[in-house]
Design goal:
The chain is α+β, with helices and mostly antiparallel strands. The protein has one domain. The protein contains five helices and six strands; from the N terminus they run H-H-H-E-E-H-E-H-E-E-E. Strands 1, 2, 3, 4, 5 and 6 form a six-stranded mixed beta sheet that branches. Strand 1 and strand 2 form a beta hairpin. The radius of gyration is 15 Å and the shape is globular.
Length: 181
């Protein structure tokens, strides 16, 4: 476990320092693998919160990041790739980067689902104008979480740790890129 965390720290910090990666996977195999990962993450999330599908059905759109790697050794960061959906249909690819500086040590992988209440919120995301404030937090995905999720400026964020649920996840400082299909 320690070795995996240290590897993840190196990869995440490198991605943040080097400016991230291309938003869409570069190969057909990469796109297929991301689609599988998104489907698997969504299926797991629906097990954790059976009401999630209803929440997504009512939303204008959503972005799913199946595996965001987050780590820090003083300087830290997070990076993840995902897919964007409008009215339940995939419309493109996205990526998320986050950089942090401070007293921090550790690593974590989690799934993040960003839900857009209306077209304006989704357009804001697609245009690269969605950024979360430093104090922003996400709702931990568990039974009933989506039923109680609140929109802030048309956006709601749900997270689930790949190693169990997170009680709360700071999402401040995240920036996003979008690439249409």
């Amino acid at each position: 476990m320690y070795k995996r965390i240290m590897q993840m720290l190196g990869v995440v910090t490198g991605l943040v320092i080097l400016g991230g990666c291309a938003t869409a996977p570069s190969s057909q195999e990469g796109r297929a693998a991301l689609t599988r990962d998104v489907g698997t993450a969504l299926a797991k999330a629906k097990v954790q919160d059976p009401e999630l599908q209803g929440f997504l059905d009512k939303a204008y759109g959503y972005a799913i990041f199946p595996s965001v790697g987050k780590g820090a050794v003083g300087v830290g960061g997070a990076y993840g790739k995902g897919e964007v959906f409008e009215r339940g249909k995939q419309i493109g690819y996205c990526d998320m980067t986050q950089a942090t500086i401070g007293l921090a040590l550790g690593g974590q992988a989690f799934t993040e689902i960003i839900v857009f209440e209306n077209q304006a919120a989704l357009d804001n995301f697609k245009n690269g104008n969605l950024k979360f404030a430093a104090q922003a937090t996400a709702t931990a995905l568990k039974a009933g979480a989506s039923a109680n999720a609140k929109y802030t400026e048309g956006v709601s964020v749900l997270t689930a740790s790949e190693e169990g649920l997170m009680a709360e996840a700071a999402i401040g400082g995240q920036t996003f890129s979008f690439q249409p299909l």
